[in-house]
């Protein structure tokens, strides 16, 4: 089972994402997924089932993943200079197009280019 790095566990707990970070691979029921795809109506964004209509709500997601869906959002539109932010927070500027795609950094690049976290960090 995957466990988050000890240095970020408290941050994940504080933001309400501790349980989400522990999600691992799970077995997908391909027959169920196929049946649901066949019942999905893209024009109305609902499933048409023999017992009636059904849709996935934000409350469903909150219950399944154990995350809060009230309060301030944690994402939104940004207008940052990502290269400048990488320089400031990572100490290095990833190659644009190779490691930075839009406003995301490829995890493979981070894994290959960032040092491992120390188990006993110091304040800097």
Overview features:
124 residues, alpha+beta, 2 domains, three-stranded antiparallel beta sheet, two-stranded antiparallel sheet, 6 helices, 10% strand
Task: Outline the structure in words.
The protein is of the alpha+beta class and 124 residues long. The strands form two sheets. It has a three-stranded antiparallel β-sheet with strand order 1-2-3. Strands 4-5 form a two-stranded antiparallel sheet. It has six helices and five strands. The mean pLDDT is 81. Helices cover 39% and strands 10% of the residues. The protein starts with 5 loop residues before the first helix and ends in an 11-residue tail after the last helix. It folds into two domains: 60 residues, no CATH class; 32 residues, no CATH class.
Oligomerization category of the chains in this entry: single chain
Can you count the beta strands? 5
Strand order of the largest sheet: 1-2-3
Over the alpha carbons, how many angstroms does the gyration radius reach?
20 Å
Percent helix among the residues? 25-40%
Could you say how many structural domains there are in total? Answer: 2
Write the layout of secondary structure elements.
Elements: H1 6-15, H2 18-21, H3 30-39, E1 40-41, E2 46-49, E3 52-54, H4 58-65, H5 82-90, E4 100-101, E5 104-105, H6 107-113
Antiparallel strand pairs: 1-2, 2-3, 4-5
Please provide a brief summary of the model.
By secondary structure, this protein is α+β, with helices and mostly antiparallel strands. Helix content is 39%, strand content 10%. It has 2 domains: 6-65, no CATH class; 82-113, no CATH class.
